[in-house]
Amino acid sequence: MKASAVGFAVLVAAAQGFAATSARAEGWDMPTAYPATNYHTETAVAFAACVKGATAGKLDVTVHPNGALFKGNDIKRAVQTGQAPIGERLISAHANENPLFGVDSIPFLASSFDASEKLWTAARPELEKLLSSQNLVYVYAVPWPPQGLYTKKPVTTVADLKGVKFRSYSVATARISELAGMIPVQIEAADLSQALATGVADAFISSGSTGFDVKAWEYMTNFYTVDAWLPRNVVFANKDAFDALPADRQAAVKKCGDEAAASGLAQAKALTQKYIDALAANKMAVSAPGAELKTQLDGFGKTMTAEWEAKAGPAGKAIIDAYEK
Ligand code: PCA
Fold first, then answer.
1. Contact indicator for 85, 237 with CB cutoff of 8 Å
2. CB 170 near ligand 1, within 6 Å
3. Domain for residue 11, yes or no?
4. Is there an atom of ligand 1 within 6 Å of 312 CB?
């Protein structure tokens, strides 16, 4: 290269570097739906700190927990429309928009952390595409612990659940409620303790994590470790906001997202038994479902797997095939 060409290259590089590092610092509000003390929220706060560090303070993400900025059910739309540049949402709550969003909530398809990771790896490319078509950029996802059944009395068969007001948080939980002859009521985690306290709901499916957050033992007597599925919270950014970031900040968001996914998963694994122990320590009866209940729930699983496959079509089938390979 001639000296003048080298000089030009250096100049261009310097100018690009200058553009990237001198672009205005900005703040991103990040609505989330769970308590500040929940590990998902702690993971989001660590993600924000990582982004701040990696961008030398030029991208400052502020986490707003507990549905305070946008209620859980409104977060996805808020980020799609740019009312918030980034947010965290339980993605299976949106399976009515597209069945692929419910891939993590097919009963008993992937009911351990390892299986859930494998399923997510198989599903992620399709989900990223789908989110992108909705003006969203996938940043990271973290699973909840396996889902169990909370009740106010011992349950030995599905017949014991008939007519019970059942708190649902997703399409899959509402469907289980229907199959079991319960009465579904859609309630965000942030409103759950209120709903239990006032008798709006008398049973629900969730993790030990959320049971711990709402002090389930104040209202419920039994927790059955059904291990139905491990739903995920997905963190996504508004595509326009993300695309407008200088390349180095985009890279920071992605890198910190990868770190958050890994640390969030590790936390979920480490905490699962601790939450269950806390339920038991607070005098809840914790047990596996009995044989009859288990068989009936497995039957719901078969029905719902077939329903999901029919709705999700070839894209869904490709995911399940990749997962089962
Ligand atoms: N907690 C959330 C979703 C799944 C979970 O474990 C909830 O109950 O709303």
1. yes
2. no
3. no
4. no
The answer on 213 and 75 residing in a single domain is no
Same domain membership, residue 161 and residue 139: no
Answer yes or no: do 225 and 237 share one domain: no
Q: Establish whether residue 144 lines the binding site of ligand 1, counting it when its CB lies within 6 angstroms of any ligand atom.
A: yes
Task: Clarify whether residues 39 and 153 are in a common domain.
Answer: no
Residue 272 in contact with ligand 1 by CB distance below 6 A? no
Residues 28, 176 share a domain: no
Say if strands 86-90 and 232-238 run parallel, antiparallel, or are unpaired: antiparallel
Give, using CA atoms, the residue closest to atom 9 of ligand 1: 189
Please tell me the residue having the least CA distance from ligand 1 atom 7: 189
Q: Which two tokens stand for residue 310?
A: 């029919």
* CB distance 169 to ligand 1 below 6 Å: yes
Q: What is the band of 180 on the pLDDT scale with cuts at 50, 70, 90? A: very high
Q: Are residues 98 and 51 in the same domain?
A: yes
Whether pTM > 0.85 for this model: the answer is: yes
DSSP codes, 130-187: HHHHTTEEEEEEEEPPPPEEEESS--SSGGGGTT-EEEE-SHHHHHHHHHTT-EEEE-
**Is 196 domain-assigned?**
yes
- Determine the structural domain holding residue 73 and report its residue range: 19-143+233-272
Query: Does residue 161 sit within a domain?
Result: yes
> Which residue puts its alpha carbon closest to atom 6 of ligand 1?
207
Cα(107) to centroid(ligand 1), Å: 15
- 123 and 241 inside one domain: yes
Which pLDDT tens digit goes with each residue over 241-291? 999 999 999 999 999 999 999 999 999 999 999 999 999 999 999 999 999
Indicate whether 9 belongs to any domain: no
Give yes or no for residue 28 CB within 6 A of ligand 1: no
Task: Tell me how far apart the alpha carbons of residues 177 and 161 are, in angstroms, rounded to a whole number.
Answer: 9
Query: Does the pLDDT at position 109 exceed 70?
Result: yes
Q: Which atom of ligand 1 is nearest to the CA of 231?
A: 4
- Token readout for 156 is 């030995």
Q: 280: which 2 tokens?
A: 């038991």
